[in-house]
Amino acid sequence: GTFKVPWVRGLSYTVNWSNTLNWSERNVFWDKNTLDGISRNGQGSRAYSRTYSTLLDNIIKFNRIFFEKHAVDLTLLYSLEQSNWEGLSGTGQDFDYTGLGTYGLQNGKTQTVKTSGGQSKGVGKMGRLTYTYDNKYSITGTVRKDGFSAFSLNKKWGVFPSVGLNWNISRENFMDKLPAINNLALRASYGSNGNQSINPYSTLAKMGFSKYIFYNDASYSITQYVNTLANNDLGWENTTGLNMGLDFSVLNNRLSGSVDGYNTKTTNLMFTLPLPTVSGKSSIVSNIGEIQNWGIEVNLNSINIEKKDFSWNTDFVFSLNRNKVVTILGQDNDGDGKEDDLISAGYFIGRPLGTIYNYKIIGMYQQADKDDGTIMTGMRPGDYILEDVADADGVKDGKITSDKDRQFLGNTNPNFRWSMTNTFNYKGFSLLVYLYSIWGGNGYYLSG
């Protein structure tokens, strides 16, 4: 619903409220005459899950033009979202009588029950102000403050400011001398945003259950233990970047598009760090490191043919992205004056995510290699020949070790992508031809 204030021109209040209910049930039973049930003397299960989500947006807008050339657009937002979910499943097997199917699971000699449930909440606050002069120059300032329940107790909130500039060049007087250009605009923005891609309760210490079996009488006791470690300081990922773009339309709008370039820095990344096994845990989620991204995106739209009964339009998209790890933990344990890589997690300073660090295969040992004694110690015919990397003095040690012979082979990121969509319309018929391509090369898009 939208409510306008009649005595304040340009002022309105809008409320959006949505509810979503997802409900799933699955009941199955295999009796003793089925392949799935014969080995277990019949088995069955009943399960349901339900998720209820709500979203409430409160928006205040003020949009007005003063003295013909000064336009002001103000937006204030307060948003609430909440999600609740629960589930239950029960199974049974080994029945004396299977005629009741899933309504008699309690008669199975072996039974299991599982329950689940949870809740997440989010709050968003935003203020945005845009000033435009004579439809030529505009500046937009935005500040967001977001909170999410899944983050740690000390880091639930994040603040993300941004500013944007736009110059509508086609509105300038000198553009009258260039009739072939229908629209031309230059824009730039600088700011930050956050990432809340974290599962609820990920920052809490959670309990696990197991059994301790006594050797003498084969009895057991139920035990509890800390299954995951808590992190009271896990917070928002923050991406800050500069984006510059050009929008254009030429030849009576038959060719239009945009070109964008960006350079961003992401800090406080949520990484799953491996832990030494002596700690009793295998990993922990933590905010570490910094990653830099830069890239180019090109969008082109063309009207190739436009007749009364026939038309042909083409949309082309090209994108290229490069990233590299700037810092991880900031540690220099080997004393070489450089920050150490986190090899166990596959993160290397100055190299992109998805870097392939492994042994280089240069062939395969044959039976003749064993017969003439040229096969490396510990290898057999049929094993891959791994390159023995020479040291700084050009000397090879004649054996394969993980610290000396693994090398950078490439990475799994695409070199670039492009897609093209051709749409043909003839009277009441249409045909869409879509091509999508991912390209490798230059050490990119290799398999690990």
Compact summary:
This protein is mainly beta and 448 residues long. It has 3 helices and 20 strands.
**Anisotropy-based shape:** extended
Helix and strand succession? EEHEEEEEEEEEEEEEEHEHEEE
Largest sheet: 14 strands, antiparallel
Strand order of the largest sheet: 1-2-3-4-5-6-7-8-11-12-13-14-19-20
Alpha-beta content class: mainly beta
Task: Give the oligomer, counting copies of the same chain as homo and different chains as hetero.
Answer: single chain
What is the terminal separation in angstroms? 53 Å
Strand tally, please? 20
Share of residues in strands: over 45%
Tally of DSSP helical segments: 3
What does the average pLDDT come to? Answer: 91
Radius of gyration: 31 Å
Report low-confidence residues grouped into runs of 5 or more.
none
Helicity, as a percent range:
under 10%
Structure characterization notes:
The chain has 448 residues and is mainly β. Helices cover 3% and strands 59% of the residues. The protein contains three helices and 20 strands. The strands form four sheets. A 14-stranded antiparallel sheet has the order 1-2-3-4-5-6-7-8-11-12-13-14-19-20. A two-stranded antiparallel sheet has the order 9-10. It is extended and about 95 Å long. 6% of the residues are buried.
How would the blueprint of this fold be written?
Layout: E1 2-4, E2 11-30, H1 35-38, E3 43-66, E4 70-93, E5 110-133, E6 137-148, E7 157-168, E8 181-195, E9 206-213, E10 220-228, E11 237-250, E12 255-274, E13 283-306, E14 310-327, E15 355-358, E16 361-364, H2 367-371, E17 384-386, H3 402-405, E18 407-411, E19 416-426, E20 429-439
